């Protein structure tokens, strides 16, 4: 039987697999990516692309391509609640960084802007870049099984065009094969939760809805009509794919009864029901049934098999976290694979992948499922849950217009219930606050500052080891750069300032002794980079002559508040610990 050799076999070409392949190829690691079908995603699926993901894509050199194709943030921003698109509007929520206060927080937090890029457009960007940088991509190729030995993994794959099987022998295997992951199953990774919590339908269609939507531009239009609470994601949804002509409806079904027969006639009737106008011409382009899941893996790795994306965290699309988290998993994993494969780091570094990412996966699975439940108070405030009589439901919805104390109370209740959905549609903290604890983070002895404000809603930068490097604009001559641009690029970076010469010398010693790529960056008046706004000085939480060491994923691995006669020893010790050498 034929055997193909590579360093890393990536199973799956969705956001997790494609981003893994892209990062590996960017770092020069030979990799083969196999994917079961003959094409990339052919339906929109994921779309909300958050700031942290955009920072990752910026570091991997594809941010501009994504931005060029994406619907920009200002057009994402009015989450609309209505009885149908042509019907009555019940309220709006400024979303996805479009509330003026949240917008300021977004601008301060990152050099990158959130945007909306449907998955069928995102995947080609990632995969094209991966392939152009060296990834060997095999379509029509299905992973079947694997075996591990001390020095590698051998996977059995099937060429679905030829109908035969062959082996791929790799040093590591990345299972990025989605929500029905066979790799996770074969690796026996322990999972918590369950699949199939509720049933949902996607109906993708073309229709010119400019008249109904362009005056209240949004990515999501929620339809709170009688019947919309059955299964699915808690309400009927009309989602913009491309403004304002390509759309997707998400509609629930009763799991026990099974998915309905997805005929074109049925699909059209659901779409027209949510649009509230059956004279609007609609062209159905695809339909599919899926389930809402609530499941996460407790550990992401079994020796040389490491899993990422929906394979290890399965949840509904609420909060738009799935593809984002998948891409961020890949970014965490790829540099570790690179350093272990080239011998710079010990294999123990790979243990930190699961330690750092599994808590994030669990958090987003819980958050996304909680968000579904948090739609119920909106229905309650409308009085839709109080009766099963449709006529009475509509009378209850109308009751909020009455000039009575009850009407006022209902109006207040509805405003509050819609405002509380901020935890789904503007959860900047959920998107940006990951702080890692693992053996690849060197504690500096300071107590955990926790979060001064709600950690789900507000991004709170920190330089305590484990946190992501805070963003600040600094300048070099006429050029403006983010601190995040100075780090990343597959290497370690040491940030210091005036008087930090001992750290520059320490970095030179670390490069020599450990053979790592380590850049030094000095920020301050007269240094290579200047901090004209004083933002960096406010954010860095160390003195001018202190040091911050970022890992290749721009998370802080080590910090020291000031100069030190032991700088060389401290830095080398820290890098050795991060690399798993003790
Ligand atoms: P994904 O399922 O995308 O890819 C798996 C890959 O593995 C595919 O290429 C498949 O062909 C391949 N594969 C599977 N088995 C294989 C085998 N045995 N051998 C070879 N290849 C195999 N997320 C988000 O971040 N923002 C959002 O706005 C939304 N919105 C959203 C809306 C809707 C309606 C849905 C259904 C989902 C979302 N999501 C989302 C979630 C998002 O789609 C999901 O989290 C990502 O696609 C997960 O990416 P993965 O790469 O992990 O799996």
UniProtKB/TrEMBL annotation:
Keyword Phosphoprotein among record annotations: no
- Which residues does UniProt call coiled coil? none
FAD-binding domain: residues covered: 5-368
**What keywords is this UniProt entry annotated with?**
FAD, Flavoprotein, Monooxygenase, Oxidoreductase
Q: Which InterPro entries match?
A: FAD-bd, RIFMO-like
Indicate whether Flavoprotein appears among the record's keywords. yes
One matching Pfam family, short form?
FAD_binding_3
Recorded GO molecular functions are: monooxygenase activity
Q: Which PANTHER family match?
A: FAD-BINDING DOMAIN-CONTAINING PROTEIN-RELATED (PTHR43004:SF8), TRK SYSTEM POTASSIUM UPTAKE PROTEIN (PTHR43004)
Name of the featured protein: FAD-dependent monooxygenase
Could you tell me which species this protein originates from?
Answer: Streptomyces niphimycinicus
């Amino acid at each position: 039987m034929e055997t193909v050799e590579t360093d890393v076999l990536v199973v799956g070409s969705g956001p997790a697999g494609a981003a893994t392949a892209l990062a590996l190829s960017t770092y020069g690691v030979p990799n083969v990516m196999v994917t079961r079908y003959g094409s990339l995603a052919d339906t929109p699926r994921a779309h909300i692309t958050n700031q942290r993901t955009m920072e990752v894509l910026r570091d991997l050199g594809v941010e501009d391509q994504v931005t060029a194709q994406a619907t920009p943030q200002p057009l994402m921003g009015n989450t609309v609640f209505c009885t149908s698109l042509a019907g009555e509007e019940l309220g709006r929520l400024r979303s996805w960084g479009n509330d003026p206060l949240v917008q300021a927080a977004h601008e301060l937090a990152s050099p990158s802007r959130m945007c909306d890029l449907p998955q069928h457009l995102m995947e080609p960007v990632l995969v094209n870049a991966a392939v152009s940088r060296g990834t060997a991509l095999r379509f029509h190729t299905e992973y079947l099984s694997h075996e591990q030995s001390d020095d590698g993994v051998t996977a059995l794959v099937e060429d679905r065009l030829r109908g035969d099987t062959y082996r791929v022998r790799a040093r590591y295997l990345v299972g990025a094969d989605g929500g029905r992951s066979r790799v996770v199953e074969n690796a026996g990774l322990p999972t918590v939760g369950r699949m199939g919590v509720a049933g949902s339908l996607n109906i993708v269609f073309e229709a010119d809805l400019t008249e109904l939507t362009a005056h209240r531009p949004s990515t999501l239009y929620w339809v709170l009509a009688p019947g919309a609470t059955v299964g699915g994601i808690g309400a009927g949804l009309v989602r913009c794919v491309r403004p304002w002509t390509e759309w997707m409806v998400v509609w629930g079904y009763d799991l026990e009864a099974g998915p309905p027969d997805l005929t074109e006639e049925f699909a059209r009737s659901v779409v027209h029901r949510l649009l509230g106008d059956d004279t609007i011409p609609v062209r159905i382009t695809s339909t599919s049934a899926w389930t809402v899941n609530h499941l996460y893996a407790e550990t992401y790795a079994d020796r040389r098999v490491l899993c990422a994306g929906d394979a290890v965290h399965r949840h509904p699309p609420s909060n738009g976290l799935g593809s984002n988290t998948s891409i961020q998993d890949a970014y965490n994993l790829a540099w570790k694979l690179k350093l272990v494969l080239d011998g710079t780091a010990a294999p123990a570094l790979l243990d930190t992948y699961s330690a750092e990412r599994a808590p994030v996966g669990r958090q987003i699975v819980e958050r996304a499922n909680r968000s579904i439940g948090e739609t119920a108070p909106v229905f309650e405030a409308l009085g839709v849950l109080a009766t099963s009589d449709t006529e009475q439901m509509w009378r209850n919805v109308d009751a909020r217009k009455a000039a009575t104390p009850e009407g006022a109370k209902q109006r207040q209740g509805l405003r509050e219930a819609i405002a509380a959905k901020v935890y789904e549609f503007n959860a900047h903290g959920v998107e940006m606050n990951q702080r890692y604890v693992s053996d690849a983070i060197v504690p500096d002895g300071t107590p955990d500052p926790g979060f001064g404000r709600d950690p789900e809603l507000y991004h709170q930068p920190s330089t305590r080891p484990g946190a992501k490097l805070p963003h600040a604009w600094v300048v070099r001559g006429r050029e403006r750069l983010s601190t995040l641009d100075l780090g990343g690029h597959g290497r370690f970076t040491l940030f210091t300032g005036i008087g930090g010469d001992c750290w520059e010398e320490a970095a030179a010693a670390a490069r020599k002794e450990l053979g790592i790529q380590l850049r030094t960056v000095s920020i301050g008046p007269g240094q290579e980079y200047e901090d004209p706004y004083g933002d960096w000085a406010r954010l860095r939480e160390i003195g001018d002559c202190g040091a911050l060491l970022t890992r290749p994923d721009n998370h802080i691995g080590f910090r020291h508040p000031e100069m030190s006669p032991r700088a060389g020893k401290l830095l080398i010790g820290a890098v050795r610990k991060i690399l798993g050498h003790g």
